[in-house]
Write a structure and sequence with these properties.
459 residues; alpha+beta; 11 strands; elongated
């Protein structure tokens, strides 16, 4: 498609008709850029978690998972018939998920936003805001920008989504077909987002504990004043209320909070701590939540071993990444593209969670089994390639290097330069020909007997 045709057919999700001018790809008009009437101190496009979740341990859990997912390499690639990586496709979709998702977010910020919203809401939509064609009229389109949207209404074939519009600076509600939007549901929905799930119960218990702490930290004195008369009559009750008000006024108006009482009156202070089993219940619910989603508490402490991290990667990160991979491939790539081997695929770097000693052992094992060459391993570690030609070869450097290459007739292996094989063969024949007649001698009778006994003994 030429640049002129691209400008003519470019489409924005917030517009009912295709853009017909250069503004569609050039960005918002200058009047919008200089107008700050709709802006504020906080970024309007930033996703904010539910109030209860922000104040709980879930904020820590969600942020850790979201950042770990964002650290994984997700690309638009081409695979072979065995679903193995062949090449990375240079496309606008690949730029969105690896470099810049939209005007405000890098690819990493975008993935953090997607996973945080998915874990917090239970289901989230990834909206192709800017495309080169109208989504309503074309099944094939090239994605120019992506944003996370909150689904507020469901229909059989469409959904209403609340998405941030970078042209107006506001969140707006749009309606799009389901088959053009990636709908990502939390794989742990029943554990995290159901009304009576373990996570909701944990949030409720933690809110109760916060309320108790607020009450204990309040300015109330919790006093009982024993009056020297009975309170059975209305007149005495009125006198008691008046006496209580007098003591409150004394404490309030006094500079140092001092009040006086009659010698016949007695004061009892209820300053004892309120005992509760809420902390114990919260600890049990937290451990139960960790077990149900496959997280160890050591992961958040930074003391998890390799086995715990492996379980965390397989039980937590992999289901989320599988959901993203399948939905992006299903919605943003046409059947023809999928037939050609195109796919949105993730790759977890196995060297991010191992110690330097383990990296050395892995390098030795992978090179010895001829899985990775030296330069391939150096590129993984971030080092420059070595100029030695052998660094690009899949060879086991622990094996002798003077083996002859059988694929070349009469060829020489590495390290055979300068050897005269004809002279070596002549020397062997001379050693066998002891009488010097040019014909190898026949074995003696004793040698024949030893050979026959060896065959009988299986030697």
């Amino acid at each position: 498609m030429s640049l002129k045709d691209r400008f003519a057919s470019a489409w924005n999700a917030f517009q009912s008709e295709p853009k017909r001018n250069e503004e569609s790809l050039a960005g918002p008009p200058q009047s919008v850029i200089t107008e700050f009437s709709t802006t504020g101190y906080y970024r309007q496009d930033r996703r904010r978690m539910h109030y209860n979740n922000e104040r709980s341990i879930l904020n820590l859990v969600f942020n850790r998972i979201a950042n770990d997912v964002a650290s994984v390499r997700i690309q638009h690639v081409r695979v072979d018939e065995n679903d193995e990586y062949k090449e990375t496709i240079k496309s606008n979709l690949n730029d969105c998920i690896t470099l810049s998702a939209n005007l405000d977010q890098t690819a990493r910020d975008f993935w953090v936003d997607v996973v945080l919203s998915m874990l917090d809401e239970g289901v989230v939509a990834v909206v192709p805001v800017d495309t080169d064609r109208n989504l309503d009229r074309n099944n094939s389109f090239d994605i120019l920008s992506l944003r996370t949207g909150l689904i507020i209404s469901w229909a059989p074939s469409q959904i209403k989504i609340e998405v941030y519009n970078d042209r107006t600076g506001k969140r707006e509600v749009i309606t799009l077909p389901k088959d053009k939007v990636a709908i990502l549901e939390n794989p742990f929905y029943s554990v995290m987002n159901e009304p009576n799930s373990t996570l909701k119960r944990l949030v409720y218990k933690m809110n109760l504990l916060d309320q108790m702490d607020s009450q204990k930290a309040s300015s109330k004195l919790n006093l009982l004043v024993k009056l020297p008369y009975s309170l059975k009559s209305p007149t005495r009750m009125a006198q008691a209320e008046e006496r209580k008000k007098t003591i409150e006024d004394q404490l309030t108006k006094s500079k140092y909070g001092i009040a006086y009482i009659d010698q016949a009156e007695q004061v009892t202070q209820l300053g004892r701590a309120i005992e509760s089993d809420l902390p114990e219940q919260i600890d049990k619910l937290t451990e139960q939540l960790y077990n149900q989603i496959g997280i160890s508490g050591d992961v958040f402490k930074g003391t998890a071993n390799s086995e715990q991290m492996l379980v965390y990667n397989k039980k937590v990160l992999k289901p989320i990444l599988d959901t993203i991979e399948l939905e992006f491939t299903r919605k943003f790539l046409t059947p023809t593209a999928r037939t050609q081997g195109q796919k949105v695929k993730y790759y977890i770097d196995a060297f991010d969670m191992v110690t330097p000693t383990e990296v050395g052992d892995m390098a030795n094992s992978l090179s010895r089994n001829e899985i990775l060459s030296a330069n391939e391993f150096r590129s993984i570690l971030g080092f420059k390639p070595n100029d030695d030609p052998r660094s690009d070869q899949l060879i086991n450097k622990n094996m002798p290097i003077n083996q002859v290459d059988p694929s070349v007739a009469g060829g020489k292996g590495a390290g055979d330069e300068g050897r005269d094989f004809n002279a070596e063969l002549d020397e062997l024949e001379r050693m066998l020909d002891e009488d010097g007649d040019g014909i190898p001698d026949e074995p003696s009778e004793s040698e024949k007997l030893l050979e026959q006994m060896g065959k009988q003994l299986g030697v």
